[in-house]
Amino acid sequence: MNPEDLQKLVTLRMPFGKHQGTVLADLPGNYLNWFAREGFPKGEIGRLLNLMHEIDHNGLSDLLKPLRGE
C-alpha cells in the first residue's frame, strides 16, 4: 500500500457494475465482500477494490477521512 493508492480510493469512481460512478471509498461493504468471494477484477481497479475491502473489513475507513478533507 502506498499513499497514492489511498488518495485514489477517495477520488476514483467505480467504472462499471451496480455501483458505477460511486467513489471507491464509498462502496458498500457487502459489494466489496462479493468481490472478495467471487474474485477481484484484474489490473489497478481490482487492486484498489481489494485494498478498500481490507480497509473496510478491518474497520479502518476513518483513515481515509483526512484525504477527503473531513
In brief:
With 70 residues, this protein is mainly α. It has 4 helices and no strands. Helix content is 50%, strand content 0%.
Q: Would you give an account of this structure?
A:
This protein is mainly α and 70 residues long. The protein has one domain (3-68). It contains 4 helices and no strands. The protein has helices at residues 3-9, 29-38, 44-57, 65-68. It is globular. The chain starts with a helix and ends with a helix. The model has no long low-confidence stretch (mean pLDDT 95).
Helix and strand arrangement:
Blueprint: H1 3-9, H2 29-38, H3 44-57, H4 65-68
Helix pairs in contact: 2-3
Number of domains: 1
CA radius of gyration: 11 Å
Please count the helical segments.
4
Largest sheet: none
Q: What distinguishing features does this structure have?
A:
70 residues, mainly alpha, 0% strand
